[in-house]
Amino acid sequence: MKLDSVGLIVNYKKDKTRETAYRIIDWLNSKKLKVCIEGNRGEEIGKEELNCPTDKFLKKVDLIISLGGDGTLLRAARLAATKDIPVFGVNLGGLGFLTQIGIDDLEKSLEKLYQERYFLDERMMLSCTVKRREKEIKKFTALNDVVIGKGAFARIICLATYVNNDYVITYSADGLVVSTSTGSTAYSLSAGGPIVNPNINSIILTPICPHTLSARPFIIGEDDQVKITLEVSEEEVMVTIDGQEGFTLEPNDEVIIKKSDHKARLITFKEKSFYAILREKLRWSGQI
């Protein structure tokens, strides 16, 4: 990978953000690499001269370093996917299924990156299109999941669900999570969905608090297409993307979800297997 310019996407709400950002910037400068910070957030760490508008940022950088937790990496991955830019995630957060590089090994990991001693892990993403009265009105790309969920009041919503235009079920529930295998350890897992190895490209449908026990999660193929129609609802209902972007739905809106043409390109050193990460992050003792 050609490496001349490196971009930073930083979550300034995390502890040790400023200190860690300085460490990364100093290391990059020592290698005579150009550095820029996405948006106008550089001033928050006293580096406003490194600010770069998002459009220019994506045209300029060869690599993006996300500094925060999994949420920061998700946003970075969505931005980077449109330009096939690799993302290197540094974990300042808690659980961290995606951001596996800790700050204790930071310089060592950066050196391995510079020496090209890494693996490029390509992850399937989802394309989400909202249609209203047969017209496309909004499009999104997600790495983890697309969630259709209700508002604050305790009333269920009804979601007619189709796979490849075959009617499957109308969920009466608090909502529905449609996730990738990567997202199977996120909201889908909390809602009772299965854990799927991210090397398996699939789409997972997991109802949130369904009204009937017969409404179970299920897995479909990567080339299948999901269509969800919001039936009449008195609730405010939203579609959310990776828990970060949202759009309000109206009754009879259709949400169409399929595999995206884009892929997330995540840099990893594969020092731990997926199953070792599961044991660590979910605190499995080995015996249940």
Describe the structure.
Helix content is 19%, strand content 40%. The chain has 288 residues and is an alpha/beta fold. The chain has two domains: 5-118 and 269-281, Rossmann fold, CATH 3.40.50; 125-261, Tumour Suppressor Smad4 (Sandwich), CATH 2.60.200. The relative contact order is 0.15.
Features:
288 residues; alpha/beta; Rossmann fold; Tumour Suppressor Smad4; 2 domains; six-stranded parallel sheet; six-stranded antiparallel sheet; 6 helices; 18 strands
Low-confidence stretches: none
Report, as a whole number of angstroms, the end-to-end distance. 44 Å
CATH architecture of the largest domain: Sandwich
* CATH topology assignment of the largest domain: Tumour Suppressor Smad4
Radius of gyration using CA atoms only: 20 Å
CATH structural class of the largest domain: Mainly Beta
Q: How many runs of DSSP E, i.e. beta strands?
A: 18
Q: Name the average pLDDT.
A: 92
Helix content: 10-25%
In CATH terms, the superfamily of the largest domain is Probable inorganic polyphosphate/atp-NAD kinase, domain 2
What is the string of helix and strand elements?
EHEEHEHEEHEEEEEEHEEEEEEH
Which strand order do you get reading across the main beta sheet? 3-2-1-4-5-6
Biggest sheet: strands, sense, closure? 6 strands, parallel
Number of helices: 6
Strand residue content: 35-45%
Short description:
The protein has 288 residues and is an alpha/beta fold.
Write the layout of secondary structure elements.
Layout: E1 5-10, H1 17-30, E2 34-38, E3 51-52, H2 54-60, E4 63-68, H3 70-81, E5 87-91, E6 101-102, H4 106-114, E7 119-132, E8 135-142, E9 145-150, E10 157-163, E11 166-173, E12 175-180, H5 187-190, E13 202-208, E14 218-221, E15 226-230, E16 237-241, E17 245-249, E18 254-268, H6 274-281
Parallel strand pairs: 1-2, 1-4, 2-3, 4-5, 5-6
Antiparallel strand pairs: 7-8, 7-18, 9-12, 9-16, 10-11, 10-15, 12-13, 13-14, 15-18, 16-17
